[in-house]
Amino acid sequence: MSDRSTIYAFQxxxxxxxxxxxxxxxxxxxxxxxxxxxxxxxxFKPEQKIDGARRVVATFPSYGEVLVYVRSLDNxxxxxxxxxxxxxxxxxDLQPVVPxxxxxxxxxxxxxxKEIERIEGLRKLAAEEPPAHDCSRRREILEARRELEMx
Length: 151
What we know:
This protein is of the alpha+beta class. The protein has helices spanning 4-16, 23-29, 37-43, 76-84, 103-126, 136-150, and strands at 18-21, 54-60, 64-70, 90-93. The chain starts with a helix and ends with a helix.
C-alpha cells in the first residue's frame, strides 16, 4: 500500500464502502493526497487488486464511465450520488476485457513478423547484382545469398 492511488482506494473503501476510481473525483475528495488534478492524473492507477471488493462501472453525466469498487450494492446509486455529487445514469458489473491473443502469443507473432521482414530484406539484397570489385556492398550481397541457402 505504497502509492497514493492504492491508499485512496483502501481508505475510501474503509470509510464508505465505495472507492470511485476517477482521477478528477479522487482529487476533489482527497485534496490531501494530490494538490491538483494534473498530479493526480499522473499518479492515479484505477486498476487495483482489492480483495473483497466488487468492481462495477458507473456512468455519470459529467465523468462518463467510472470504475467503482464496492463492498455492497445496497443503495449504491444513492451512495454514489452522496459521494460524487451527481446521480449515476447507469450501473453495471465490470466485464473484464479478455485479450484476443495472450501476451506470449502476441510476442511470438511479433517475432515471426520481424523474422519474415528480415528474410524479405535478405531476398531483396541477394537478388541484386554484386559489384565486380571487393567492397562492403559486395560482401553484404554474398552474405545474404549464403544465409538464404542455409534457410
